[in-house]
Design goal:
The complex is a heterodimer of chains A (533) and B (355).
Chain A: H1 2-23, E1 34-39, H2 55-64, E2 69-72, E3 75-81, E4 84-89, E5 95-100, H3 114-127, H4 133-136, H5 145-148, E6 149-153, E7 156-160, H6 167-173, H7 184-189, H8 198-201, E8 211-217, E9 221-226, E10 239-244, H9 248-257, E11 262-263, H10 268-273, E12 280-295, H11 305-313, H12 317-322, E13 329-331, H13 353-362, E14 369-376, H14 381-395, E15 397-404, H15 406-414, E16 420-425, H16 432-439, H17 454-457, H18 463-472, H19 478-494, E17 498-511
Parallel strand pairs in A: 1-10, 1-11, 14-15, 14-16
Antiparallel strand pairs in A: 2-3, 4-5, 5-7, 6-7, 8-9, 9-10, 11-17, 12-16, 12-17, 13-17
Helix pairs in contact in A: 11-13, 13-14, 16-19, 18-19
Chain B: H1 2-48, H2 53-58, H3 64-73, H4 80-92, H5 106-141, H6 146-160, H7 163-177, H8 189-192, H9 202-209, H10 212-249, H11 252-259, H12 264-293, H13 296-301, H14 307-316, H15 320-348, H16 350-354
Helix pairs in contact in B: 1-15, 5-6, 5-10, 5-12, 6-10, 7-10, 9-10, 10-12, 12-15, 14-15
The chains are: A alpha+beta (533), B mainly alpha (355).
Chain lengths: 533, 355
């Protein structure tokens, strides 16, 4: 009896398997009006523009909301009006009058007004989420923001700043995600406990962008649908579906099969492998993200200028960039990325073990040094750490790699408990101050300091550079301002605990029929509305 | 007399019920202690990892004021014992907290992700049992012959080949080259937002929606990860079944049965197999439990939004509430499976009933 049962069971299992295999034949290719994007998108924690600060979330809201200021997708060095049509600055440099673009509508059908813009900026400050500092640096607080940000009428927005900042700085800040204009009526309709609609906007949208958020399933997918009333014309692709596909090989297979139109996270090897495939193409764009080696100045050896210089000559930038980082990171030694106004593109340092050794000897270490290097335990951190370990050994520095989850490394960095540490930096908004404020600003170098800037994390006491950084953000002459940032970068490049090594290049693999997908230089600049298929 | 008889009768029925009640109380006590231990260990591991959980919420660029505000909101500024007590109180009220990464209550997340894993684990275990048990029995009965060698090699491969690799090869062959199955994900993008999620089980939801094209599509997504997990489950169950059977077939009662002229079929299926059913239940329960918590690699390859992937992502994102919530669910599932297998022991083994 049991035997018969088991034999039947085995046959049934085989039968079911066969039926499933044959019965469930796949149909590849995505619909003509839909783009399916395979991406690692588990970083989204919120889709409220007052809170979004993650890569995928920033990208989504860039396509769902219109920001007051934006960049020309054809040339990201050109700042242009988004919801703002024109603007002027008062003589004292503290009042900005912004004329709103006429005729814009939210997906709800309501017109976009200066009142909505004022509400959007006010709620960012009142909610006080992570990106709020971009606005609070203007001297705006929860207590004064209604006075500092107001709508004169439906078409005119008035912004007051506590200090006369460089106008380009203020306008660049308004191009960040926090500059997104939210439908105030819709947000307030869904508000609870005076949260300005925050809990609702985390998972819903109330914007006027090219797309409307249809659904966000965390760690699964995001679906966007074209907004027919978008002020630049209805998007060519009706629906964008971002699918969370964590495994790069699975992304590649889906792309090759036609189940995905765009794959965002292929590895360097995979991108190389698909280069000969006529059905696929690769879109490469330089990003603002830079990769650097941090040297804690609390370490006696690393505090010596000669050792800092030796370290710069002990890194094989070129080999890394042309081998395992090929196509993904290019050699760059200034803290502001190439492609944006104000970048320093000189790369004076190259690998020279003999020179590094001689400098170490001059610094008093003829027999070399031994140092710990904290690095993330994933690609590319682990690979870069190994290369650094190998070339440092040739220069006489014995490196012990301390691998860890990147958040673990970050926690250690914020506590200034490292010696050497590999880290990346991505600007929060497209203005050089965003990065200079991190690397060349350290108003209080004590252990209990509140501002944990990059300079502080490396215990780099720099009163002069801190003053120069503060001066650059106030400089109203754009050319002079750019020159000041280049000067700051030259100083950091020549001698500092920040050894900038690379600038990231983002590569997206696409089916050849997919055109006009623009990634832009920042994490939140990809543009969907021009995509065609 | 009748009263006396009645009293005796009542006494006879009361004793087993008391025993049953005591048994249930013991099991419940064990369940509570196990869960408490699990919570304790997970909670403290979560608190001692050198990652600041506030970073996951506030991000690296947040102001010091915001970081301190969030730390206070989460109660992370309190002593550890107080944090643990607060956590226990919340759990007692059915509140596992909110996930930082999904912005939703953990309970809601689990209701979304756990069915995806159960779907795969049930199918994997079914395939494993339906294929593994007969293969194990046949292999033992034909020890040393070609069928035994084949089963052993297949089972050994299932044990040794990394699931990650097998998943990718499976996709390459059956999805890309042969076009027999669909690729990663639970359903094609075109159906994803048409089928209303009622139960969380994609196949059932498609059937409830009455959309047979969607059912077919979901099935074509489901079959490959289910088969791969089924293969691993089969490998384990077949090896264990073979080993149990060989042990039984070498017992004296089998020799006696053979001497008495009992047919080989009856010896194998009635005598030997009848005696391995109890340990086999443990093996199957363990295999199922392993599939419930150990499918993270399969879920990664197949972009299958299950509980394994949820816990792993949460761990990397320092989303401690989600890690704790997911661990509790998996832990409770283990305990329940354990209780179920104990109950089945009692049913199948007369000695357990007598005890």
């Amino acid at each position: 009896m049991i035997e018969r049962l088991m034999r039947g069971a085995a046959l049934a299992a085989l039968g079911l398997t066969f039926a499933a295999l044959v019965g469930g034949q796949a149909t590849a290719a995505t619909p003509k009006d839909t783009i399916v994007m395979a991406k690692t998108m588990d970083d989204i924690t919120s889709l409220d523009p007052a809170e979004v600060f993650e890569f995928t979330g920033g990208e989504v809201i860039n396509n769902v909301y219109v920001r007051l200021m934006t960049y020309d997708p054809a040339d990201f060095t050109k700042l242009i009006g988004g919801a703002a049509e024109s603007w002027s600055v008062s003589d004292d440099g503290k009042t900005f009058t912004i004329k709103m673009r006429q005729g814009m509508k939210f997906t709800t059908g309501r017109p976009v007004t200066a009142k909505d813009a004022a509400f959007s900026l006010q709620r960012v400050v009142a909610l006080g989420k992570s990106p709020a500092f971009i606005l609070t640096q203007f001297g705006w607080t929860a207590a004064n923001v209604k006075e500092m940000v107001s709508a004169q009428d439906d078409g005119t927005l008035i912004l007051k700043t506590a200090t006369a900042f460089a106008p380009s700085f203020v306008m660049n800040c308004l191009s960040a995600g926090i500059g997104s204009v939210v439908d105030s009526e819709e947000a307030l309709k869904n508000a609870k406990d005076n949260d300005f609609g925050y809990n609702w906007l985390r998972t819903n949208s109330a914007g006027s962008g090219a797309y409307k958020l249809v659904a966000w399933k965390p760690k699964e997918s995001v679906v966007l649908e074209a907004n027919p009333g978008f002020y630049r014309g209805e998007a060519k692709t009706k629906r964008i579906i971002i699918r969370h596909v964590p495994e790069a090989t699975a992304q590649r297979l889906m792309l090759e099969k036609g189940d995905a139109d765009i794959a965002r996270n292929l590895t360097a090897d995979q991108l190389k492998a698909i280069a000969g495939d006529s059905k696929l193409t690769v879109n490469s764009t330089g990003k603002g993200t830079i990769y650097y080696l941090a040297l804690n100045q609390k370490n006696e050896a690393l505090a010596k200028p000669k050792v800092r210089e030796a370290v710069r000559w002990a890194i094989d930038y070129q080999t890394m960039s042309s081998t395992f980082l090929a196509g993904q990171y290019g050699v760059h030694q200034g803290f502001w990325g190439k492609g944006s106004a104000g970048s320093l593109d000189d790369t004076p340092f190259k690998f020279d073990a003999a020179k590094a050794k001689a400098l170490l000897a001059e610094a008093g270490y003829p027999n070399g040094l031994e140092l710990d290097l904290d690095a993330g335990n994933t690609t590319p951190h682990a690979d870069i750490a190994q290369s650094v370990q190998s070339t440092f050994a040739q220069a006489g520095i014995k490196v012990n790699i301390v691998p860890g989850d990147i958040r673990q490394v970050l926690t250690k960095y914020r506590a200034r408990n490292h010696q050497l540490l590999l880290m990346y930096w991505s600007p929060d908004y497209l203005d050089p101050h965003s990065t200079a404020d991190f690397f060349t600003n350290n108003p209080d170098n004590s252990d209990g300091a509140k501002a944990k800037t990059g300079a502080w994390r490396n215990a780099w006491d720099i009163p002069d550079l801190t003053k120069e950084t503060a001066a650059a953000v106030l400089e109203r002459d754009p050319q002079k301002r750019i020159a000041m940032y280049i000067d700051l970068q030259k100083k950091v490049q020549a001698d500092s605990p920040i050894v900038v090594m690379f600038q990231q290049t983002e590569q997206a693999a696409l089916r050849t029929e997919v055109k006009n997908f623009i990634l832009g230089p920042s994490f939140d600049t990809p543009v969907y509305w021009q995509i065609t298929k | 007399m009748s009263l006396g008889a009645g009293t005796v009768g009542a006494g006879k029925t009361a004793r087993p019920s008391m025993k049953l009640l005591r048994g249930i109380a013991t099991q419940l006590g064990t369940l509570c202690l196990t869960i408490l231990g699990l919570l304790f260990v997970t909670f403290f591991i979560g608190r001692v990892v050198p990652i600041d959980p506030v970073l996951a919420i506030a991000g690296d660029r947040a102001t010091p004021e915001l970081i301190e505000k969030i730390r206070a909101e989460l109660g992370l500024d309190l002593p550890l014992y107080q944090q643990f007590w607060n956590y226990l109180v919340k759990i007692a009220h059915g509140d596992l907290g909110n996930s930082v990464l999904t912005a939703k209550p953990i309970i809601q997340d689990i209701a979304t992700y756990f069915p995806a894993t159960i779907e795969l684990a049930v199918a994997g275990t079914l395939i494993g049992v339906l294929a593994g048990v007969p293969l194990g029995v046949i292999s033992a009965a034909r020890q040393g012959r070609w069928i035994d060698h084949v089963v052993r090699v297949v089972a050994l491969a299932g044990y040794s080949v990394p699931v990650f690799w097998l998943g990718l090869v499976g996709l390459l062959v059956f999805y890309v080259k042969l076009d027999w199955v669909s690729g990663p994900g639970r359903i094609d993008a075109v159906y994803e937002y048409i089928v209303e999620p009622r139960t969380g089980f994609m196949l059932i939801d498609c059937i409830l929606a009455g959309d047979w094209e969607a059912v077919k599509n979901a099935l074509s997504h489901f079959v490959l990860p289910a088969l791969i997990l089924g293969y691993y489950s089969m490998a384990y169950i077949a090896r264990m079944t073979r080993s149990f059977m060989l042990e039984q077939l070498n017992q004296e009662y089998i020799v006696t049965a053979r001497v008495k002229g009992v047919s080989e079929r009856a010896i194998i299926w009635r005598h030997a197999f009848g005696n391995i059913r109890v340990p086999l239940i443990t093996v199957i329960a363990l295999s199922f439990a392993h599939l419930l918590e150990g499918t993270v690699l399969t879920e990664t390859v197949f972009a299958w939004p299950g509980i394994g992937l949820y816990i792993t992502h949460s761990l990397f994102g320092a989303d401690l509430n989600a890690v704790l919530g997911g661990t509790i669910v998996v832990g409770v599932s283990f305990v329940i499976l354990n209780l179920l297998s104990d109950a089945l022991y009692t049913l199948l083994d007369p000695r357990a009933r007598a005890a």
